[in-house]
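Self-study notes.
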Amino acid sequence: MNLLYILLLVLCSAFNVSDAWEPDYRTMTASPDAWHTTTTNTTTSVTDTSSFLIYNEDHNKCVTVVSANVLQAVPCNVSSKAQHFRWISSSRIISLSLSLCLEAENLENWVKIILQPCKELSPMQTWECKDQNLFGLKGLPLHLNYGNSNEQNMMLYKGTGVWSHWLIYGTKENLCSRGYQEMTSIGGNSDGKPCHFPFKVGGQWYADCTADGRDDGQMWCSTEEDFDTDRKWGFCPPKNFAEDQHKKGLSLFYICFFSFVVGVVVIITTAAVIIRRKAKNSAITGTDNTIWMFKKTSEFLKRKEEATNQLINSD
Protein backbone atom coordinates (compact mmCIF):
# COMPACT_ATOMS: atom_id res chain seq x y z
CA MET A 1 0.00 0.00 0.00
CA ASN A 2 2.82 2.42 0.85
CA LEU A 3 4.50 1.68 -2.47
CA LEU A 4 1.27 2.35 -4.33
CA TYR A 5 0.78 5.69 -2.52
CA ILE A 6 4.33 6.76 -3.37
CA LEU A 7 3.73 5.77 -7.00
CA LEU A 8 0.62 7.97 -7.18
CA LEU A 9 2.49 10.93 -5.70
CA VAL A 10 5.31 10.54 -8.21
CA LEU A 11 2.81 10.33 -11.07
CA CYS A 12 0.97 13.51 -10.04
CA SER A 13 4.23 15.37 -9.40
CA ALA A 14 5.55 14.41 -12.82
CA PHE A 15 2.48 15.86 -14.54
CA ASN A 16 2.60 18.96 -12.38
CA VAL A 17 6.24 19.67 -13.13
CA SER A 18 5.91 19.07 -16.86
CA ASP A 19 3.02 21.54 -17.12
CA ALA A 20 4.45 24.19 -14.82
CA TRP A 21 5.82 26.35 -17.62
CA GLU A 22 5.27 26.69 -21.31
CA PRO A 23 8.57 26.05 -23.16
CA ASP A 24 8.62 29.62 -24.47
CA TYR A 25 7.84 31.11 -21.08
CA ARG A 26 10.34 29.40 -18.85
CA THR A 27 11.70 31.08 -15.75
CA MET A 28 14.55 33.39 -16.62
CA THR A 29 16.46 35.65 -14.27
CA ALA A 30 19.17 36.84 -16.63
CA SER A 31 19.99 40.51 -16.37
CA PRO A 32 18.09 42.69 -18.85
CA ASP A 33 21.51 43.93 -19.93
CA ALA A 34 21.79 40.66 -21.86
CA TRP A 35 19.25 42.09 -24.30
CA HIS A 36 19.69 44.73 -26.92
CA THR A 37 18.13 47.58 -24.97
CA THR A 38 17.68 49.95 -27.88
CA THR A 39 14.00 50.47 -28.68
CA THR A 40 12.14 51.43 -31.78
CA ASN A 41 9.72 54.33 -32.17
CA THR A 42 6.71 52.06 -32.36
CA THR A 43 5.04 50.07 -29.64
CA THR A 44 3.80 46.53 -29.93
CA SER A 45 0.52 45.60 -31.57
CA VAL A 46 -2.54 44.80 -29.50
CA THR A 47 -1.94 41.43 -27.83
CA ASP A 48 -4.90 40.88 -25.54
CA THR A 49 -8.66 40.90 -25.61
CA SER A 50 -9.08 43.52 -22.86
CA SER A 51 -8.68 46.41 -25.33
CA PHE A 52 -11.79 47.86 -26.95
CA LEU A 53 -13.16 50.51 -29.28
CA ILE A 54 -15.26 53.31 -27.75
CA TYR A 55 -18.45 53.32 -29.82
CA ASN A 56 -21.35 55.77 -30.13
CA GLU A 57 -24.34 53.84 -31.42
CA ASP A 58 -26.37 56.92 -32.37
CA HIS A 59 -23.71 58.11 -34.83
CA ASN A 60 -22.29 54.64 -35.57
CA LYS A 61 -18.76 55.94 -35.01
CA CYS A 62 -15.78 55.20 -32.78
CA VAL A 63 -13.34 57.43 -30.94
CA THR A 64 -9.98 57.72 -32.68
CA VAL A 65 -6.71 59.36 -31.69
CA VAL A 66 -5.50 61.91 -34.23
CA SER A 67 -2.93 63.35 -31.85
CA ALA A 68 -2.54 63.84 -28.12
CA ASN A 69 -4.67 66.99 -28.38
CA VAL A 70 -7.20 65.79 -30.94
CA LEU A 71 -9.69 62.96 -30.41
CA GLN A 72 -12.54 62.59 -32.89
CA ALA A 73 -15.33 60.20 -33.84
CA VAL A 74 -14.86 58.39 -37.16
CA PRO A 75 -16.08 55.16 -38.82
CA CYS A 76 -15.03 52.20 -36.70
CA ASN A 77 -11.99 50.17 -37.75
CA VAL A 78 -10.89 47.34 -35.46
CA SER A 79 -7.52 47.09 -37.21
CA SER A 80 -6.66 50.70 -36.37
CA LYS A 81 -4.56 50.90 -33.23
CA ALA A 82 -5.55 54.56 -32.91
CA GLN A 83 -9.05 53.36 -31.96
CA HIS A 84 -7.97 50.88 -29.29
CA PHE A 85 -8.21 51.75 -25.60
CA ARG A 86 -7.89 49.80 -22.36
CA TRP A 87 -8.50 50.25 -18.65
CA ILE A 88 -5.23 50.37 -16.69
CA SER A 89 -6.91 50.81 -13.31
CA SER A 90 -10.45 50.92 -12.00
CA SER A 91 -10.84 54.50 -13.28
CA ARG A 92 -8.21 55.31 -15.93
CA ILE A 93 -8.33 54.53 -19.65
CA ILE A 94 -5.23 54.50 -21.83
CA SER A 95 -4.77 54.87 -25.57
CA LEU A 96 -2.77 51.95 -26.93
CA SER A 97 -1.46 54.05 -29.83
CA LEU A 98 0.14 56.83 -27.75
CA SER A 99 0.31 55.19 -24.30
CA LEU A 100 -1.37 58.24 -22.79
CA CYS A 101 -4.48 58.44 -20.62
CA LEU A 102 -7.89 59.86 -21.47
CA GLU A 103 -8.22 63.26 -19.78
CA ALA A 104 -10.51 66.29 -19.73
CA GLU A 105 -8.73 69.63 -20.16
CA ASN A 106 -10.59 70.93 -17.13
CA LEU A 107 -13.47 70.14 -14.82
CA GLU A 108 -15.83 72.37 -16.74
CA ASN A 109 -18.62 72.02 -19.26
CA TRP A 110 -17.69 71.92 -22.94
CA VAL A 111 -13.92 71.48 -22.77
CA LYS A 112 -11.84 69.18 -25.01
CA ILE A 113 -10.99 65.58 -24.24
CA ILE A 114 -7.27 65.03 -24.75
CA LEU A 115 -4.53 62.51 -23.91
CA GLN A 116 -1.96 63.14 -21.19
CA PRO A 117 0.59 61.11 -19.22
CA CYS A 118 -1.24 58.84 -16.81
CA LYS A 119 -1.68 60.26 -13.32
CA GLU A 120 -3.21 57.95 -10.78
CA LEU A 121 -4.86 60.63 -8.62
CA SER A 122 -5.89 63.13 -11.29
CA PRO A 123 -9.66 63.84 -11.10
CA MET A 124 -9.58 64.76 -14.80
CA GLN A 125 -8.55 61.16 -15.63
CA THR A 126 -11.00 59.44 -13.29
CA TRP A 127 -13.85 57.93 -15.34
CA GLU A 128 -16.88 55.81 -14.55
CA CYS A 129 -19.91 54.24 -16.20
CA LYS A 130 -23.31 55.60 -15.23
CA ASP A 131 -26.91 54.70 -15.99
CA GLN A 132 -27.96 53.73 -19.53
CA ASN A 133 -24.43 53.56 -20.96
CA LEU A 134 -23.66 57.12 -19.90
CA PHE A 135 -19.92 57.61 -19.46
CA GLY A 136 -18.19 60.49 -17.70
CA LEU A 137 -15.96 61.81 -14.95
CA LYS A 138 -16.40 60.06 -11.64
CA GLY A 139 -18.75 61.78 -9.24
CA LEU A 140 -19.39 64.72 -11.58
CA PRO A 141 -22.27 65.53 -14.00
CA LEU A 142 -19.79 65.82 -16.88
CA HIS A 143 -19.72 63.24 -19.67
CA LEU A 144 -17.72 62.14 -22.68
CA ASN A 145 -19.58 63.65 -25.65
CA TYR A 146 -19.52 63.19 -29.42
CA GLY A 147 -19.37 66.95 -30.11
CA ASN A 148 -21.32 68.42 -32.98
CA SER A 149 -21.01 69.69 -36.53
CA ASN A 150 -19.21 72.81 -35.37
CA GLU A 151 -16.95 71.05 -32.88
CA GLN A 152 -15.25 67.96 -34.31
CA ASN A 153 -13.31 67.11 -31.18
CA MET A 154 -14.52 64.89 -28.38
CA MET A 155 -15.83 67.11 -25.60
CA LEU A 156 -16.80 67.05 -21.92
CA TYR A 157 -20.47 67.90 -21.63
CA LYS A 158 -23.08 68.11 -18.87
CA GLY A 159 -25.84 66.70 -21.10
CA THR A 160 -27.07 63.10 -20.74
CA GLY A 161 -28.47 62.51 -24.23
CA VAL A 162 -27.48 59.75 -26.67
CA TRP A 163 -24.40 61.69 -27.79
CA SER A 164 -22.97 61.00 -24.32
CA HIS A 165 -23.75 57.28 -24.42
CA TRP A 166 -20.95 54.85 -25.26
CA LEU A 167 -20.62 51.11 -25.82
CA ILE A 168 -17.82 48.67 -26.58
CA TYR A 169 -17.86 48.33 -30.35
CA GLY A 170 -19.42 45.07 -31.53
CA THR A 171 -21.37 44.58 -28.29
CA LYS A 172 -24.27 46.02 -26.34
CA GLU A 173 -22.11 46.40 -23.24
CA ASN A 174 -20.89 49.58 -21.60
CA LEU A 175 -17.20 50.47 -21.37
CA CYS A 176 -16.89 49.14 -17.83
CA SER A 177 -17.86 45.62 -18.89
CA ARG A 178 -14.27 45.15 -20.00
CA GLY A 179 -12.69 46.67 -16.93
CA TYR A 180 -9.20 46.51 -15.53
CA GLN A 181 -7.60 43.07 -15.56
CA GLU A 182 -4.32 42.60 -13.74
CA MET A 183 -1.72 40.77 -15.85
CA THR A 184 0.66 38.61 -13.83
CA SER A 185 4.15 38.34 -15.29
CA ILE A 186 5.98 35.02 -15.74
CA GLY A 187 9.64 34.44 -15.00
CA GLY A 188 12.01 37.39 -15.25
CA ASN A 189 13.24 38.85 -11.98
CA SER A 190 9.97 40.13 -10.50
CA ASP A 191 8.74 36.95 -8.78
CA GLY A 192 5.39 37.00 -10.57
CA LYS A 193 4.47 40.63 -9.88
CA PRO A 194 1.83 42.09 -12.23
CA CYS A 195 2.82 44.15 -15.25
CA HIS A 196 2.73 47.89 -14.70
CA PHE A 197 0.95 49.78 -17.50
CA PRO A 198 2.08 52.12 -18.79
CA PHE A 199 5.80 51.58 -18.25
CA LYS A 200 8.72 53.57 -19.57
CA VAL A 201 11.79 52.15 -21.34
CA GLY A 202 14.43 54.42 -22.83
CA GLY A 203 12.14 57.42 -22.46
CA GLN A 204 9.31 55.70 -24.39
CA TRP A 205 5.99 54.71 -22.81
CA TYR A 206 4.34 51.34 -23.41
CA ALA A 207 0.67 50.63 -22.80
CA ASP A 208 1.01 46.94 -23.62
CA CYS A 209 3.51 44.09 -23.58
CA THR A 210 6.34 44.47 -26.05
CA ALA A 211 9.04 42.45 -27.79
CA ASP A 212 11.23 45.54 -28.22
CA GLY A 213 14.79 45.00 -27.02
CA ARG A 214 14.70 41.22 -27.44
CA ASP A 215 16.10 39.07 -30.23
CA ASP A 216 13.79 36.11 -29.57
CA GLY A 217 10.50 37.95 -30.08
CA GLN A 218 9.10 37.07 -26.65
CA MET A 219 6.65 39.55 -25.18
CA TRP A 220 7.63 41.14 -21.87
CA CYS A 221 6.65 43.96 -19.54
CA SER A 222 8.11 46.03 -16.77
CA THR A 223 6.62 45.45 -13.34
CA GLU A 224 7.51 48.97 -12.27
CA GLU A 225 6.66 52.30 -13.91
CA ASP A 226 10.24 53.14 -14.92
CA PHE A 227 12.13 50.11 -16.19
CA ASP A 228 15.37 52.02 -16.74
CA THR A 229 15.48 52.84 -13.02
CA ASP A 230 14.13 49.68 -11.41
CA ARG A 231 15.10 47.02 -14.00
CA LYS A 232 12.24 44.77 -12.89
CA TRP A 233 10.55 42.71 -15.59
CA GLY A 234 8.78 39.48 -16.54
CA PHE A 235 7.35 37.72 -19.59
CA CYS A 236 3.73 38.35 -20.52
CA PRO A 237 1.49 35.28 -20.53
CA PRO A 238 0.06 34.09 -23.87
CA LYS A 239 -3.44 35.22 -24.79
CA ASN A 240 -5.06 31.99 -23.61
CA PHE A 241 -2.63 31.30 -20.77
CA ALA A 242 -5.22 31.42 -17.99
CA GLU A 243 -7.63 29.24 -19.94
CA ASP A 244 -4.86 26.77 -20.84
CA GLN A 245 -3.69 26.57 -17.24
CA HIS A 246 -7.27 26.00 -16.13
CA LYS A 247 -7.63 23.17 -18.65
CA LYS A 248 -4.28 21.70 -17.61
CA GLY A 249 -5.32 21.96 -13.97
CA LEU A 250 -8.50 20.05 -14.74
CA SER A 251 -6.56 17.44 -16.73
CA LEU A 252 -4.10 16.99 -13.90
CA PHE A 253 -6.96 16.68 -11.43
CA TYR A 254 -8.66 14.01 -13.51
CA ILE A 255 -5.40 12.13 -14.00
CA CYS A 256 -4.64 12.16 -10.29
CA PHE A 257 -8.23 11.33 -9.38
CA PHE A 258 -8.32 8.43 -11.85
CA SER A 259 -4.98 7.19 -10.52
CA PHE A 260 -6.32 7.44 -6.98
CA VAL A 261 -9.47 5.49 -7.89
CA VAL A 262 -7.41 2.81 -9.64
CA GLY A 263 -5.16 2.61 -6.58
CA VAL A 264 -8.13 2.23 -4.24
CA VAL A 265 -9.60 -0.50 -6.46
CA VAL A 266 -6.25 -2.32 -6.48
CA ILE A 267 -5.98 -2.05 -2.70
CA ILE A 268 -9.53 -3.30 -2.14
CA THR A 269 -9.05 -6.16 -4.62
CA THR A 270 -5.76 -7.16 -2.99
CA ALA A 271 -7.32 -7.04 0.46
CA ALA A 272 -10.25 -9.18 -0.70
CA VAL A 273 -7.89 -11.79 -2.16
CA ILE A 274 -5.89 -11.90 1.07
CA ILE A 275 -9.05 -12.26 3.18
CA ARG A 276 -10.35 -15.04 0.94
CA ARG A 277 -7.04 -16.88 1.15
CA LYS A 278 -7.00 -16.57 4.93
CA ALA A 279 -10.59 -17.76 5.10
CA LYS A 280 -9.77 -20.72 2.87
CA ASN A 281 -6.73 -21.58 4.92
CA SER A 282 -8.81 -21.32 8.07
CA ALA A 283 -11.42 -23.63 6.61
CA ILE A 284 -8.78 -26.18 5.64
CA THR A 285 -7.18 -25.99 9.07
CA GLY A 286 -10.56 -26.46 10.71
CA THR A 287 -11.26 -29.52 8.58
CA ASP A 288 -7.88 -31.02 9.44
CA ASN A 289 -8.59 -30.50 13.15
CA THR A 290 -11.98 -32.14 12.85
CA ILE A 291 -10.50 -35.17 11.10
CA TRP A 292 -7.77 -35.40 13.72
CA MET A 293 -10.33 -35.22 16.51
CA PHE A 294 -12.44 -37.86 14.77
CA LYS A 295 -9.49 -40.16 14.47
CA LYS A 296 -8.60 -39.67 18.15
CA THR A 297 -12.22 -40.29 19.20
CA SER A 298 -12.43 -43.48 17.14
CA GLU A 299 -9.18 -44.72 18.59
CA PHE A 300 -10.43 -43.96 22.12
CA LEU A 301 -13.70 -45.81 21.52
CA LYS A 302 -11.86 -48.77 20.05
CA ARG A 303 -9.57 -49.02 23.07
CA LYS A 304 -12.55 -48.62 25.41
CA GLU A 305 -14.31 -51.50 23.68
CA GLU A 306 -11.19 -53.67 23.92
CA ALA A 307 -10.86 -52.91 27.61
CA THR A 308 -14.52 -53.77 28.22
CA ASN A 309 -14.18 -57.10 26.40
CA GLN A 310 -11.11 -57.98 28.50
CA LEU A 311 -13.08 -57.36 31.72
CA ILE A 312 -15.91 -59.57 30.53
CA ASN A 313 -13.61 -62.39 29.54
CA SER A 314 -11.73 -62.24 32.85
CA ASP A 315 -15.01 -62.80 34.71
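Second protein, same conventions, sequence then structure:
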Amino acid sequence: MSGTGNLLTDRPELYEERFPDPERLAARWAEATLRRYGSGHRVLDLGCGTGRDAAWLHRAGRRVTAVDTSAAMLAHARRHHPGPDYRHADMRDADLGRVFDAVLCLDSALLHCHTNPELAAALAVCARHLAPGGLLVAELRNGAFLLGDGSLLDGPATATFRRGSTTYTSRTTLRVDHGAQLLRRHRAWTADDGSPPHEEHTAWRLLFPQELRYFLAVAGFEVLALHDGPGPRTEPPWREGDRPGTTLRADRLHLVARLAPRPHHDGDTTP
Protein backbone atom coordinates (compact mmCIF):
# COMPACT_ATOMS: atom_id res chain seq x y z
CA MET A 1 0.00 0.00 0.00
CA SER A 2 1.07 3.57 -0.62
CA GLY A 3 0.82 6.23 2.05
CA THR A 4 -1.61 8.67 0.37
CA GLY A 5 -4.57 8.74 -1.99
CA ASN A 6 -7.67 6.57 -1.69
CA LEU A 7 -6.85 2.88 -1.40
CA LEU A 8 -10.12 1.51 -2.74
CA THR A 9 -10.30 4.02 -5.60
CA ASP A 10 -6.68 3.45 -6.57
CA ARG A 11 -7.15 -0.34 -6.40
CA PRO A 12 -10.65 -1.11 -7.71
CA GLU A 13 -10.23 -4.85 -7.20
CA LEU A 14 -10.05 -4.15 -3.47
CA TYR A 15 -13.14 -1.94 -3.69
CA GLU A 16 -15.15 -4.81 -5.16
CA GLU A 17 -13.81 -7.18 -2.51
CA ARG A 18 -14.65 -4.76 0.32
CA PHE A 19 -18.10 -3.85 -1.07
CA PRO A 20 -19.36 -6.91 -2.94
CA ASP A 21 -22.68 -6.69 -4.75
CA PRO A 22 -23.16 -10.19 -6.17
CA GLU A 23 -26.88 -9.62 -6.74
CA ARG A 24 -26.26 -6.26 -8.48
CA LEU A 25 -28.89 -4.67 -6.27
CA ALA A 26 -27.89 -1.12 -7.20
CA ALA A 27 -28.17 -1.76 -10.94
CA ARG A 28 -31.40 -3.72 -10.58
CA TRP A 29 -32.96 -0.98 -8.45
CA ALA A 30 -31.93 1.59 -11.07
CA GLU A 31 -33.36 -0.53 -13.89
CA ALA A 32 -36.65 -1.05 -12.04
CA THR A 33 -36.86 2.70 -11.42
CA LEU A 34 -36.17 3.51 -15.07
CA ARG A 35 -38.87 1.07 -16.14
CA ARG A 36 -41.39 2.40 -13.60
CA TYR A 37 -41.04 5.93 -14.96
CA GLY A 38 -40.91 4.94 -18.64
CA SER A 39 -37.34 5.95 -19.44
CA GLY A 40 -35.82 5.43 -22.86
CA HIS A 41 -32.76 3.23 -23.31
CA ARG A 42 -29.97 5.86 -23.47
CA VAL A 43 -28.36 6.12 -20.00
CA LEU A 44 -25.53 8.24 -18.63
CA ASP A 45 -23.96 6.84 -15.43
CA LEU A 46 -22.15 9.69 -13.64
CA GLY A 47 -19.59 8.43 -11.14
CA CYS A 48 -19.64 4.87 -12.45
CA GLY A 49 -16.80 3.57 -10.24
CA THR A 50 -15.75 0.03 -11.13
CA GLY A 51 -18.42 -0.24 -13.84
CA ARG A 52 -20.41 -3.08 -12.26
CA ASP A 53 -23.74 -1.26 -12.44
CA ALA A 54 -23.12 0.23 -15.88
CA ALA A 55 -22.26 -3.18 -17.32
CA TRP A 56 -25.34 -4.83 -15.81
CA LEU A 57 -27.55 -2.12 -17.31
CA HIS A 58 -25.80 -2.60 -20.65
CA ARG A 59 -26.59 -6.32 -20.56
CA ALA A 60 -30.20 -5.46 -19.66
CA GLY A 61 -30.49 -3.63 -22.99
CA ARG A 62 -29.60 -0.06 -22.08
CA ARG A 63 -27.16 1.94 -24.18
CA VAL A 64 -24.85 3.15 -21.43
CA THR A 65 -22.19 5.83 -21.34
CA ALA A 66 -20.33 5.75 -18.02
CA VAL A 67 -18.20 8.56 -16.60
CA ASP A 68 -15.71 8.71 -13.74
CA THR A 69 -12.78 10.88 -12.64
CA SER A 70 -10.62 7.90 -11.61
CA ALA A 71 -8.39 6.51 -14.37
CA ALA A 72 -7.81 3.38 -12.27
CA MET A 73 -11.55 2.75 -11.91
CA LEU A 74 -12.11 3.23 -15.64
CA ALA A 75 -9.27 0.88 -16.58
CA HIS A 76 -10.73 -1.75 -14.26
CA ALA A 77 -14.21 -1.20 -15.69
CA ARG A 78 -13.08 -1.59 -19.30
CA ARG A 79 -11.19 -4.78 -18.45
CA HIS A 80 -13.64 -6.49 -16.10
CA HIS A 81 -17.03 -4.97 -16.98
CA PRO A 82 -17.03 -4.33 -20.73
CA GLY A 83 -19.95 -3.07 -22.78
CA PRO A 84 -20.59 0.56 -21.79
CA ASP A 85 -18.82 3.49 -23.40
CA TYR A 86 -16.48 4.53 -20.58
CA ARG A 87 -15.32 8.16 -20.47
CA HIS A 88 -12.91 10.06 -18.23
CA ALA A 89 -14.72 13.22 -17.13
CA ASP A 90 -15.86 15.19 -14.09
CA MET A 91 -19.58 15.45 -13.37
CA ARG A 92 -19.14 19.15 -12.61
CA ASP A 93 -18.05 20.11 -16.13
CA ALA A 94 -18.54 17.08 -18.41
CA ASP A 95 -19.54 17.80 -22.01
CA LEU A 96 -20.10 14.58 -23.94
CA GLY A 97 -21.77 16.14 -26.95
CA ARG A 98 -24.87 13.95 -26.80
CA VAL A 99 -28.14 13.61 -24.91
CA PHE A 100 -29.59 10.75 -22.90
CA ASP A 101 -32.96 9.57 -21.67
CA ALA A 102 -31.73 9.17 -18.09
CA VAL A 103 -28.82 10.17 -15.89
CA LEU A 104 -27.84 7.97 -12.93
CA CYS A 105 -25.91 9.17 -9.87
CA LEU A 106 -25.60 6.15 -7.59
CA ASP A 107 -23.73 5.55 -4.31
CA SER A 108 -23.79 9.21 -3.23
CA ALA A 109 -21.88 10.36 -6.32
CA LEU A 110 -23.58 13.78 -6.14
CA LEU A 111 -22.27 14.32 -2.61
CA HIS A 112 -18.71 14.66 -3.91
CA CYS A 113 -19.85 18.15 -4.93
CA HIS A 114 -18.94 19.90 -1.69
CA THR A 115 -20.01 23.48 -2.38
CA ASN A 116 -23.18 25.09 -3.70
CA PRO A 117 -21.50 26.13 -6.99
CA GLU A 118 -20.18 22.58 -7.50
CA LEU A 119 -23.60 21.04 -6.87
CA ALA A 120 -25.30 23.54 -9.17
CA ALA A 121 -22.71 22.82 -11.87
CA ALA A 122 -23.25 19.05 -11.60
CA LEU A 123 -27.03 19.39 -11.86
CA ALA A 124 -26.56 21.70 -14.85
CA VAL A 125 -24.44 18.97 -16.47
CA CYS A 126 -27.25 16.48 -15.83
CA ALA A 127 -29.82 18.82 -17.37
CA ARG A 128 -27.63 19.62 -20.38
CA HIS A 129 -27.21 15.93 -21.18
CA LEU A 130 -30.90 14.99 -20.88
CA ALA A 131 -33.45 14.89 -23.65
CA PRO A 132 -36.69 16.79 -22.89
CA GLY A 133 -38.54 14.90 -20.18
CA GLY A 134 -35.44 12.87 -19.29
CA LEU A 135 -34.97 11.39 -15.84
CA LEU A 136 -32.39 11.98 -13.12
CA VAL A 137 -32.18 8.98 -10.77
CA ALA A 138 -29.94 9.36 -7.73
CA GLU A 139 -29.20 7.45 -4.56
CA LEU A 140 -27.39 9.28 -1.77
CA ARG A 141 -26.99 9.65 1.95
CA ASN A 142 -29.54 11.73 3.86
CA GLY A 143 -27.93 14.70 5.59
CA ALA A 144 -30.95 15.23 7.82
CA PHE A 145 -30.64 11.70 9.22
CA LEU A 146 -26.91 11.96 9.84
CA LEU A 147 -27.28 15.19 11.79
CA GLY A 148 -30.18 13.76 13.80
CA ASP A 149 -28.58 10.41 14.68
CA GLY A 150 -25.07 10.62 16.10
CA SER A 151 -24.49 6.87 16.37
CA LEU A 152 -22.24 6.84 13.29
CA LEU A 153 -20.05 9.48 14.94
CA ASP A 154 -19.63 7.75 18.30
CA GLY A 155 -16.12 6.49 17.67
CA PRO A 156 -13.75 4.68 15.34
CA ALA A 157 -15.22 1.71 13.46
CA THR A 158 -13.01 -1.20 12.45
CA ALA A 159 -13.59 -3.42 9.42
CA THR A 160 -11.55 -6.27 7.94
CA PHE A 161 -11.60 -8.09 4.62
CA ARG A 162 -9.32 -10.50 2.87
CA ARG A 163 -8.08 -10.66 -0.71
CA GLY A 164 -5.84 -13.56 -1.64
CA SER A 165 -3.42 -14.12 1.19
CA THR A 166 -3.61 -10.55 2.51
CA THR A 167 -5.92 -9.25 5.23
CA TYR A 168 -6.78 -5.54 5.11
CA THR A 169 -8.02 -3.67 8.17
CA SER A 170 -9.54 -0.18 8.20
CA ARG A 171 -10.13 2.08 11.19
CA THR A 172 -12.62 4.81 10.29
CA THR A 173 -13.61 7.97 12.13
CA LEU A 174 -16.44 10.25 10.98
CA ARG A 175 -17.17 13.81 12.03
CA VAL A 176 -19.60 16.48 10.90
CA ASP A 177 -18.11 19.77 9.70
CA HIS A 178 -21.16 21.92 10.42
CA GLY A 179 -19.87 25.10 8.80
CA ALA A 180 -19.01 23.40 5.52
CA GLN A 181 -22.00 21.04 5.80
CA LEU A 182 -19.73 18.04 5.15
CA LEU A 183 -19.40 14.56 6.59
CA ARG A 184 -15.63 14.16 6.89
CA ARG A 185 -14.02 10.74 7.07
CA HIS A 186 -10.54 9.80 8.26
CA ARG A 187 -9.58 6.23 7.45
CA ALA A 188 -6.37 4.39 8.34
CA TRP A 189 -5.54 1.14 6.52
CA THR A 190 -3.14 -1.59 7.54
CA ALA A 191 -2.36 -4.90 5.86
CA ASP A 192 -0.60 -8.01 7.13
CA ASP A 193 1.63 -8.29 4.04
CA GLY A 194 4.28 -5.94 5.41
CA SER A 195 3.21 -2.91 3.37
CA PRO A 196 3.24 0.51 5.06
CA PRO A 197 0.08 1.99 6.61
CA HIS A 198 -2.20 4.10 4.43
CA GLU A 199 -4.18 7.15 5.55
CA GLU A 200 -6.89 8.98 3.65
CA HIS A 201 -9.26 11.89 4.14
CA THR A 202 -12.54 12.13 2.22
CA ALA A 203 -15.79 14.05 2.59
CA TRP A 204 -19.42 14.11 1.42
CA ARG A 205 -21.84 17.01 1.24
CA LEU A 206 -24.70 16.77 3.73
CA LEU A 207 -27.86 17.64 1.80
CA PHE A 208 -31.31 18.05 3.31
CA PRO A 209 -34.42 17.00 1.38
CA GLN A 210 -35.86 20.52 0.97
CA GLU A 211 -32.43 21.89 0.06
CA LEU A 212 -32.10 19.20 -2.62
CA ARG A 213 -35.54 20.05 -3.98
CA TYR A 214 -34.51 23.70 -4.29
CA PHE A 215 -31.31 22.95 -6.21
CA LEU A 216 -33.22 20.63 -8.53
CA ALA A 217 -35.91 23.23 -9.21
CA VAL A 218 -33.28 25.86 -10.04
CA ALA A 219 -31.67 23.38 -12.45
CA GLY A 220 -35.00 22.82 -14.22
CA PHE A 221 -36.11 19.54 -12.63
CA GLU A 222 -39.47 18.43 -11.29
CA VAL A 223 -39.16 15.98 -8.38
CA LEU A 224 -41.28 12.89 -9.01
CA ALA A 225 -40.16 10.88 -5.97
CA LEU A 226 -37.94 11.48 -2.95
CA HIS A 227 -37.93 8.78 -0.28
CA ASP A 228 -35.68 6.91 2.11
CA GLY A 229 -36.27 3.38 0.86
CA PRO A 230 -36.28 0.64 0.14
CA GLY A 231 -33.10 0.87 -1.90
CA PRO A 232 -29.96 -1.09 -2.71
CA ARG A 233 -28.17 0.05 0.46
CA THR A 234 -31.05 0.11 2.94
CA GLU A 235 -31.91 -2.41 5.64
CA PRO A 236 -33.76 -4.43 4.60
CA PRO A 237 -32.47 -4.01 1.04
CA TRP A 238 -34.73 -3.44 -1.94
CA ARG A 239 -36.23 -6.45 -3.68
CA GLU A 240 -37.92 -6.74 -7.07
CA GLY A 241 -41.49 -5.48 -6.82
CA ASP A 242 -40.91 -3.27 -3.77
CA ARG A 243 -42.62 0.11 -3.88
CA PRO A 244 -41.02 3.32 -2.60
CA GLY A 245 -41.64 4.33 1.01
CA THR A 246 -43.06 7.66 2.08
CA THR A 247 -40.80 8.89 4.88
CA LEU A 248 -37.45 10.69 4.83
CA ARG A 249 -36.14 9.65 8.26
CA ALA A 250 -33.51 7.04 7.40
CA ASP A 251 -29.91 7.10 6.19
CA ARG A 252 -30.60 7.12 2.42
CA LEU A 253 -32.38 9.35 -0.05
CA HIS A 254 -33.68 7.96 -3.34
CA LEU A 255 -34.50 10.56 -5.96
CA VAL A 256 -36.36 10.52 -9.26
CA ALA A 257 -36.65 13.86 -11.05
CA ARG A 258 -37.78 14.76 -14.55
CA LEU A 259 -36.28 17.56 -16.62
CA ALA A 260 -39.13 20.02 -16.99
CA PRO A 261 -39.97 21.22 -20.51
CA ARG A 262 -38.42 24.56 -21.31
CA PRO A 263 -41.07 27.30 -21.48
CA HIS A 264 -42.07 28.32 -24.99
CA HIS A 265 -42.41 32.00 -25.71
CA ASP A 266 -44.33 33.48 -28.61
CA GLY A 267 -41.94 34.30 -31.40
CA ASP A 268 -39.33 31.86 -30.15
CA THR A 269 -37.85 30.19 -33.22
CA THR A 270 -35.39 27.97 -31.36
CA PRO A 271 -35.83 24.40 -32.70
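Instructor comment on the second fold: DSSP finds eight helices and eleven strands in the chain.
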